[in-house]
Amino acid sequence: MVEVDPERFEAMVTEALDGIPGELGELMSNVAVTVHHDRGPAGLLGLYQGVPLTRRSAFYAGVLPDRITIYRRAICALCDSDSEVVEQVRRTVIHEVGHHFGISDARLRELGW
């Protein structure tokens, strides 16, 4: 396990989001990304909660933003170095953004995420 300062971890999440190709980032809609500095539920590294873009219809309006939560301690518990944390944050952010785009866990695993 490696300990990463909360502010540094949040910067890693921001860097991972900034690394998403611009054309995909422009398609993201009504989603907030937050960091929780605990382990999170059932050993999850990240969690997407909301209505994926593929399930939104003309009736999708006036709703709270979808949420992507990244769990700092859960990720740090898996890693032995700062560089491993950076990579795991990147993988977790991409995985949860994939859910925002309607991609299932099974398909994300097939894609290596």
TrEMBL record:
Annotated InterPro entries: Zincin_1 (IPR010428), Zincin_1_sf (IPR038555)
A Pfam family that the UniProt record links to this protein: Zincin_1
CDD domains: MMP_ACEL2062 (cd12952)
SUPFAM superfamilies: Metalloproteases ('zincins'), catalytic domain
Name of the protein this chain belongs to: Metallopeptidase family protein
